[in-house]
UniProtKB/TrEMBL annotation:
Signal peptide feature range: 1-21
Recorded family membership: Belongs to the MipA/OmpV family.
Compartments reported by the entry: Cell outer membrane
Keywords tagged on the record: Cell outer membrane, Membrane, Signal
Species the sequence originates in: Pseudoalteromonas aurantia
PANTHER family (alphabetical): MLTA-INTERACTING PROTEIN-RELATED (PTHR38776:SF1)
Protein name: MipA/OmpV family protein
Keyword check for Signal: yes
Pfam families tied to this protein: MipA
Membrane found in the keyword field: yes
Amino acid sequence: MTFMKSAYAACLLACSTHTLAQQESSDVTWSLGIGAISSDQGYVDVGTETNIVPIVGIQYGNFSLLGPRASYKIFTSDQFEISAIGNLRFDGYEAADGDIFTGMEDRDMSFDAGIEAEIDTSFGEFGLGLVHDVTSTHKGFELSASYGVPFMFENGRVMPYVAANYQSEDLADYYFGVQQNEATSSRAFYQLDATTNIEIGIGSDWMFNNKHYIKADISYASYGSDIKDSPLVDKSGEAQILVGYAYVF
């Protein structure tokens, strides 16, 4: 099964962890739930896939874990925060996922780790992040910058945002390239350079009675030209919808 892309999912989990942390009533807060992610990565003839994933969360002091993402706050103030982060990258595919992958080697998920900074201002929230593959899967890195404007409501918030995600040559080529030994008459050898994807979306977080957490998000990432030109891709970007529920103990 083709996995959903992870750059935006990691951002969503960061916002989710922050919201759940605000609700903590003891030294340790636990949460448990389920989520669904529907995504079309643009691979030829693969289409939209929906994955159901469990949500397990722990919040303890500066440390937080929510699903496949962990973070530890290194520095925090009223408007500025720096964290060490680690998260699973769910990109990839198996040869059985579609005819376009026949004869290709599987592309696996990775575990990426790095650092991120968040800045809250009177005119919006800015974010910067840098992660690198620590599992020697794609052996690349991703640098992200984002800007969003939160709208606060009684039980939650909604935040439209825009982001730019720079993927290194190793990262982009691993998931969208075709190696020499994989080339055929209908699938040419193709090697990518570094590329930048531009993403827009709306994220929302809701908490009811300090126990029931709901998340609903939608996004679209426009691929950089190197990904768009890949023989594995027939769309210009990826659309994604995420919904989830967690009970906070």
